[in-house]
Amino acid sequence: MTSLSKIAVSGKGGVGKTTLSALLAHIYAERGRDVTAIDADPVGGLAQALGLPEELAARVTPVAQMEDLIYERTGAKPGTSGGFFTMNPRVDDIPERFSVSHRGIRFLRLGTIETGGTGCICPESALLKALVTHLLLYRDEMLILDMEAGVEHLGRATAQAVDAFLVVLEPGRRSLSTAERVKKLAQDIGITHVYAVGNNVRGQRDQEFLVDKSPVPILGYLSRNPELTDADMRGVGIYDAAPQSVQEATQLVAALEAL
Ligand SMILES: Nc1ncnc2c1ncn2[C@@H]1O[C@H](COP(=O)(O)OP(=O)(O)OP(=O)(O)O)[C@@H](O)[C@H]1O
Ligand SMILES: [Mg+2]
Question: Among 42, 40, 147, 58, which residue's Cα sits nearest to residue 102?
């Protein structure tokens, strides 16, 4: 048994972060790990990729939108800044209280903070940061964070706890420049284990292109697979709908375990 347990997934919009996160969550859950999958991407979509029934997914309110909870825990109303609020609110009960479980995967949504770009020092971000810190540092389970193209919610205190920071790439310049930027952001806060996963790969040439151009070591690949697009169009989970991708993601897990 390995000690690898905290995985963050980042990359350009639409590159396959949620697809990869959902595959990893299912594979680890199948292996008997306690898995918590966190939708930390404002665009969302992880619940659907995981195949959560709609009525179950609907029960999960993003933590950033829980105004009463934010007020109760930080002492300040969301949307305010400059006033006093606690930077270390109580969060240890949040994972149990505000998540749902499905097929061995606990699911939680962080939600969006309106920041106007540069991040904010506001009660809701203090609560989210404390929550992510708690999940990374004080809980034993397998954690999979589906993030946007950045390192929001992570900080110096938590950097060391991230066992693998995965940047999803596809054969193309735009995802590579995003990867370069994400790598820098990750390094700036001290995250060391940064790896790339090539997605939407059509064959040998694409793999070679990515090996040649990737700013970080490549862990493995997911091939372009119409079953994934179909699953998204039908609104069904990808684990049952795309066995070929599950197979490839299993290889990725093997590569992760071998790190
Ligand atoms: N290997 C693949 N083959 C075919 N389609 C794919 C593949 N990977 C992802 N897709 C499809 O591409 C779309 C975007 O994928 P996904 O939602 O995983 O990306 P994302 O990076 O999470 O996007 P966002 O930035 O919007 O959160 C989805 O419709 C998904 O089914
Ligand atoms: Mg996504």
Answer: 58
Give me 25's structure tokens: 């969550």
Distance of CA 186 to the CA centre of its chain: 14
For residue 95, give its domain range: 6-257
| Ligand 1 site-directed mutation target among 48, 228, 230, 245, most atoms within 8 Å of CB | 228
Instruction: Give how many domains the chain has, as a whole number.
Output: 1
Report yes or no on 1 lying in a domain: no
**Per-chain residues with Cβ under 5 A from ion ligand 2:** 17-18, 41, 45
Amino acid symbol at 247:
Q
CATH of the domain at 230: 3.40.50.300
Q: What is the pLDDT along the chain (259 residues), one digit of tens a residue?
A: 456 999 999 999 999 999 999 999 999 999 999 999 999 987 779 999 999 999 999 999 999 999 999 999 999 988 777 778 888 999 999 999 999 999 999 999 998 776 555 566 789 988 999 999 999 999 999 999 999 888 878 888 888 899 999 999 999 999 999 999 999 999 999 999 999 999 999 999 999 999 999 999 999 999 999 999 999 999 999 999 999 999 999 999 999 999 9
Query: Closest ligand to 232 CA?
Result: 1
Task: With respect to residue 11, please indicate whether it lies within any of the assigned structural domains.
Answer: yes
User: Could you give the C-alpha distances from 18 to 66, 108, 160, 170, in angstroms and in order?
Assistant: 23, 14, 23, 14
Is residue 112 lining ligand 1, measured as CB closer than 6 Å?
no
Q: State the Cα–Cα distance between residues 77 and 83, nearest whole angstrom.
A: 10
Domain annotation covers residue 238: yes
> Is the residue at 28 inside a domain?
yes
Cα 253 to middle of ligand 1, angstroms: 19
